[in-house]
Write a structure and sequence with these properties.
- The chain contains two helices and seven strands; from the N terminus they run E-H-E-E-E-H-E-E-E.
- It is an alpha+beta fold.
- Strands 1, 2, 3, 4, 5, 6 and 7 form a seven-stranded antiparallel β-sheet that branches.
- Strand 2 and strand 3 form a beta hairpin.
Length: about 110
């Protein structure tokens, strides 16, 4: 099994160098998202922070709907410098989801 690195640095590097190669793979309920970089073959797992308020609880809902109807249209569209926020955008319905991250892990190879 390949080693797992707990750092946003690998995902940030992939996004900076080849953002189009980052492919949304799946949502692992209740709080994880899988992203694959087809350019460097890295698998990234993003754990999002739990919602603190009821209005935040549906943050994944629009993204879940997109994964059921048109998952191939979902792309990672931004990651902030510290890796605290990650943004996904659906090309089909134009919806943008911004999520606060708790942990970003990467498996190489």
């Amino acid at each position: 099994m390949p080693p797992t690195y707990k750092s946003p640095a690998f995902l940030q590097q992939c996004f900076a160098v080849h953002p189009v190669s980052l492919t949304f793979k799946k949502i692992i309920p209740p709080d994880r998202i899988g992203v694959f970089c087809c350019q460097c073959k890295m698998r990234h797992r993003v754990t999002i922070q739990p919602a603190h308020a009821p209005e935040e609880a549906s943050g994944l809902t629009p993204l879940l709907l997109c994964t059921r109807t048109h998952p191939e249209s979902i792309r990672m569209s931004a990651i902030d410098r510290e890796g605290d926020n990650i943004q996904f955008r659906c090309g089909e319905c134009q919806h943008t989801t911004i999520l606060k991250t708790a942990l970003i892990e990467t498996q190489i190879g």
